[in-house]
Design goal:
- There is one protein chain.
- By secondary structure, the protein is an all-alpha fold.
- The chain has two domains: 92 residues, RNA polymerase sigma factor, region 2, helix turn helix motif (Rna Polymerase Sigma Factor, Chain: A); 66 residues, Arc Repressor Mutant, subunit A (Orthogonal Bundle), CATH 1.10.10.10.
- Helix content is 75%, strand content 0%.
- It is built from nine helices and no strands.
- The radius of gyration is 18 Å and the shape is globular.
- The N and C termini lie far apart (44 Å).
Amino acid sequence: MELTDQELLSMMAAGDSSAFGVFFDRYSSRVLGLLVKFVRRREDAEDLLQATFCEIWRRAPSFDPSRSCCDSWLFLIARSRALDYLRIRRPAAELAAVPEPATDHDLTGGLELVEASDRLHEALQRLPEEQRRAIELAFFAGLTHEQIAGELEAPLGTIKTRIRLGMNRLRDSLRDH
């Protein structure tokens, strides 16, 4: 019997390194693919892969399955590591071209962003499972429609329909707020 992701994370939270090995084997190639898309260099992506899985090991006790699926959580952590890396590695000339923020900056912008994020999370949770999973894999994990079809073992046309219907529901739900 194959262990679920949640079972593996629970075992990892208890310090089981063999569960970590299984989890790593299950996800490392997909996470590496995502990281290569972000940073463009395999060597850098491999370093980020290690950092991602170290963070997964460290954060396993705090994983909350009511907030997201395990793989979405994992891909979001990998994406965050890649974005952090890209911010650090930006050429100085590129950073100099970024305009300074206005001095009359609206300090409520950060709060509005958090509120919008919470509304989006709530709206995602109200979607049917099939639509939510397809959208999470597309937008948070950065997978193509073809990759999502393979991951969810569903026809490509079905995946495209799920994403389109889910996005329409999200739009309607967020517009109502």
